[in-house]
Amino acid sequence: MLIKTLLLISVFFITYLSADFKEGKKIFLQKCSSCHSKYIDMKIIKKNFFENENKTLKMTSPSENMLAYAIMDSPKHLGEKDDPEMQQIEIEEFLKDYLENPDLNNTICEGRIIQYYNKKLPSNYDLSSEDISNLAIYFMNYKEERLKNNSTKIELKVLPNNFNEEKLLKEAKKQQKRILIYATAKTCHFCKKMDKEVLSLSDVKNEIKKDFILLKVDIEDSSLPFNLAKNYRGMTPTFFAINNDGKLQNKYPGSWNKKDFLLILKENSK
Q1: Residue 9 has what pLDDT?
Q2: pLDDT 10s digits, 10-58
Q3: CA-CA distance, 110 to 52, in Å (whole number)?
Q4: How far is C-alpha 227 from the geometric centre of its chain's CA atoms?
Q5: Nearest 5°: phi and psi at 49?
Q6: Chain Cα centroid distance, residue 171
Q7: Are 1 and 121 in contact (CB under 8 A)?
Q8: 248 φ, ψ to 5°?
Q9: Which of 177, 182, 191, 193 is the most exposed place for a label (fewest CB within 10 A)?
Q10: Which residues pair with 212 in a beta bridge?
Q11: How many Å apart are CA 121 and CA 67, to the nearest integer?
């Protein structure tokens, strides 16, 4: 009976934390996202600040994952992970103080990049104590939740009816990625085979996600974007590697095994 009770308490506690994480995410989107962007890959962030002097992204405030890193994992991190209750209190106190009196001199973010941030910070977040508690839990669990939800996902987009080439190019430039167009068809046996035996593999997905936005185009329903029809010979599958200016770099007709497909990705990565 005692074990059952403890299990019920444990399940309740996990559910409670999950609910608070979701509430914290909602609060961040509603009240913080006007200044702080969504997730940006850390490789891109480092290159932006330390190689390009913020000329690529032109960030004026840290992204959500930069905030989570600063709070939980940076040299200036708040509290200790082996005492989560006390850590949550410290994070709440920091958030409350900083949001009431925003000052870049008191930031816990990387000192070498705060020179690029807005010097005049907003102070009208209007967050309750409960909001701040939920935000603290959001940041405490951000990394774990992101890994859990995105470890094997790839940025696979299916061509919509209202597809906008310029919007996709803008997204690719922002993420500093290239575009991989996958010409396929519902009736294509080799497409289904490649989907199952290559594109569904976690390591292949991760390699795609690292450097590409993958756009799937069913040629039975849609026309190929970026004026690719003139380079297409009707074979499915065919892969087109496009740079983020919309120019064709390479074309690969046919089905590929894992080893050869990884070489294709490497050949067209940055």
Answers
A1: 40
A2: 433 443 444 478 888 888 888 887 788 888 877 778 888 888 888 878 8
A3: 16
A4: 29
A5: -85, -45
A6: 12
A7: no
A8: -70, 130
A9: 193
A10: 178
A11: 15
> Which CATH homologous superfamily contains domain 156-268?
Glutaredoxin (3.40.30.10)
Which residues make up the CATH 3.40.30.10 domain(s) of the chain? Answer: 156-268
Q: Please give the Cα distance from 212 to 178 (Å, whole number).
A: 5
Compute φ and ψ for 177, nearest 5 degrees.
-125, 165
Mapped onto helix, strand or coil, the DSSP state of residue 163 is coil
The three-class DSSP label of residue 242 is strand
In the block, which residue shows the tokens 């987009």?
Answer: 157
For residue 254 the two structure tokens come to: 């046919």
Q: Is 30 left (phi over 0), alpha (psi -120 to 50) or beta?
A: alpha
Max CA separation in the chain (angstroms): 71
Tracing tokens 């609910």 back to the chain, one arrives at 19
Token pair 């209190």 in the structure block, residue: 89
pLDDT band at 136 (very low <50, low <70, confident <90, very high): confident
Query: DSSP of 104-152, one letter per residue?
Result: GGG--S-TTTGGGS-SS--------HHHHHHHHHHHHHHHHHHHHHHTT
Strands 178-184 and 238-242: antiparallel
Instruction: Tell me the Cα Rg of the chain.
Output: 23
The total of other beta-carbon atoms located within 10 Å of residue 149's CB is 9
Task: Report residue 108 CA to chain centroid gap.
Answer: 22
